[in-house]
Amino acid sequence: FDESMKNVYDDCIRPAIVDCGFEALRVDEVLHNDKIDDKIIALIKESRFLVADITGHRPNVYYEVGFAHGQGKQVIMVCSEEEKNNLHFDIRQYNCIFYNHSKLDKLKNDIEYRIRASIGFNPPKTFV
Predict the structure, then answer these.
(1) Handedness of CA 32, 38, 88, 76 (dihedral sign)
(2) How many Å is the maximal CA-CA distance in the chain?
(3) What is the pTM assigned to this prediction?
């Protein structure tokens, strides 16, 4: 949870997920008494899809993307344009949303469009 990436999550990833009718969860925002790795795995198993920012090429993010793929989950990957040419071989074959830090409103729209196109819209439940 790199502090330099906080605005990408807060301003783009979370709002795009919520605007499509889903709940955005990040393990550091969930109260639990579990080992963090176990909680991440449990949340991936329970999730409908995963949005992963692979900027920085952190091994744990690659692991989580691979685990989600193994679970048959849709994975929407985003990455800073600055690192476009440094994607690892196994990730390069997937469609990735590249973003510019000075145009984060475009990233939010791109994520929302991808969710609606590949996952769908989850309208809020109404109770009568």
Answers:
(1) negative
(2) 52
(3) 0.88
Q: Could you tell me how many residues make up the chain?
A: 128
Instruction: Return the structure tokens found at 67.
Output: 């685990």
The full 3-state SS of 63-118, as one line of letters, equals HHHHHHHHCCCEEEEEEEHHHHHHCCHHHHCCCEEEECCCCHHHHHHHHHHHHHHH
Residue with tokens 């906080």: 6
pLDDT over 70, % of the chain: 94
β-strand partners of 78? 53, 97
**Cα dist. 5→10, 31, 97 in Å?**
9, 21, 15
**In angstroms, what CA-CA distances link 121 with 99, 109, 114, 125?**
23, 14, 11, 12
pLDDT tens readout for residues 3-29: 778 899 999 999 999 999 999 988 877
